[in-house]
Amino acid sequence: QVQLVQSGSEVKKPGASVKVSCKASTDAFTTSGFGWVRQAPGQGLEWVGYISAYNGYTNYAQSLRGRVFMTTDTSTNTAYMELRSLRSDDTAVYYCATWFGTGYYRDWGQGTLLTVSS
Amino acid sequence: QSVLTQPPSVSAAPGQKVTISCSGSSSNIGSKYVSWYQHFPGTAPKLLIYDNDKRPSGIPDRFSASKSGTSATLGITGLQTGDEADYYCGTWDSTLSGYVFGTGTKVSV
Description:
- The structure holds two protein chains of two kinds.
- Chain A has strands at 4-6, 10-12, 18-24, 33-39, 45-52, 58-60, 68-73, 78-83, 92-100, 104-108, 112-116.
- Chain A is an all-beta fold.
- In chain A, the strands form two sheets. In chain A, strands 2, 4, 5, 6, 9, 10 and 11 form a seven-stranded mixed β-sheet that branches. Chain A has a four-stranded antiparallel β-sheet with strand order 1-3-8-7, with no helix packed on it.
- In chain A, a hairpin with a 5-residue loop joins strand 5 (45-52) and strand 6.
- Chain A is globular, with a radius of gyration of 13 Å.
- The termini of chain A are far apart.
- Chain B has strands at 9-11, 18-23, 34-39, 46-49, 63-68, 71-76, 86-93, 98-101, 105-108.
- Chain B is built from no helices and nine strands.
- By secondary structure, chain B is mainly β.
- In chain B, strand 3 (34-39) and strand 4 (46-49) form a beta hairpin.
- Chain B starts with 8 loop residues before the first strand and ends with a strand.
- In chain B, strands 1, 3, 4, 7, 8 and 9 form a six-stranded mixed β-sheet that branches.
- Classes of the chains: A mainly beta, B mainly beta.
- Chains A and B meet through strand 5, strand 9 and strand 10 of A and strand 3, strand 7 and strand 8 of B.
């Protein structure tokens, strides 16, 4: 199992950007990669995107393409998710998770609350 | 609106069994592996089932799952009050080229 520790809560104004980090306890790059999932207040889980641990390939949810960018730093076993041009409906808890190639998320971070408000 | 449809809620008495359905299509469940997650609000989701019917280590055999065609089912036997949570199915969708979660089902015991 891999422990994932995410950065703390953020409060941003509409139009701003945020970068959330997700640090793995071990070399989590033995997994296929990292995924990001969010849950808006009162809503279900929504897939945000994925980054490959092998080659940095990314795949983002259609609704967020152009605003979301994922990166990894193998030297620190850390994954990052940056969301730009924030809107109020981006307010949600964002989770990182380890992605396995047959299609599932095994280890999850504790979540990062992002609040977008003027 | 998710492409995977689940009942909003199911309930049963302690010790009983519940099943949760997850209905999709040929571009997702019909051709991809399904996983299931348990989510207590305010905490990290937990993987219950992967590759349609496999349990990660530490998940009790009270939790089981199956897949048939474009639908999948999660079963929970010997219900406990600690099982009260939201449950989501998930899989890859080849048309959307992305991962999709079901609409979620709240289990009440």
